[in-house]
Amino acid sequence: MNIPPRKRKKATSTSSDLQPVANPQDFSHQDNQDVVTIDVPAVEVPELTPEEQSDRLHLERKVERAFFEAGKALAELRDRRLYRSTHRTFEEYCKDRFGYNRSRSYQLIDAAIVVDNLTECPQIVDILPTAEGQIRPLTKLEPQQQQEVWQQAVEEAGSKVPTGKIVKDVVQRIMERTQVPNTYQLGEVCQILAKDNPELRGKGGCWAIVTQVNDFSCTVRTWDGELTVGLKHLKSYEYLAEDCQQMQEICNRISRVYSGGLEESVQKFLESLGKLKRAYLTGLEEKVLRVLESETSR
Hints:
five-stranded antiparallel beta sheet, alpha+beta, single chain, elongated, 11 helices
């Protein structure tokens, strides 16, 4: 008996299966409904109590005076030689114990001396330095000048603690105004003082011959070149005219050998001659220089 094939049922959808096409305006309306406004209550920051205010001021003062306290301590360690049980010199002690080189140690010591001086001036006792660099330009001035410069720098900073640049600018203007006339003469032999001038690094202690006299500086010639140096970084040897002439000849001879491009050891020897504190060469120095001259002339 043949069974007739079943008819395939048509797919039907219930109302739950069908979703109406959404109107774009409906989405916009829905998005607006999703925007929620949250009210955040303001958090009231309580004021410092009188005790907290006192603690804050005390701690701020400790931070501000940190460099001052360090300088005072270093000065006492140096003056009482409290390093002597472990180190031969104060400089070695500071390097090993604190990581300070000689320059940094004495910067802090000098700064502490300046602060002590500033605190003696009633007009500026309320605005004192907070960092060593702010008063570094003052260390070479007289105590009264230090106070005057600091007062002026505070005024220029709007009655606030001035930066080191402001202090340096005030010092420079005062120095230019009170500058002693340049009395150096052409051909005069001077010693270069490189302290506090990084541009003269490596030149400290070298002798130099004045080749040009400027208002506040001199152009000088050393054994290995020429440079311009401020008056405060020069010190005359006060040689007689014949000594100056002899140093000029020595300078010319050293320069010729130096320009010959000999070995580094030779240059070290020439550098030692460039720091002589006398207007002549010893017999041995003269012999060595002649040998080097003969080598460069070949």
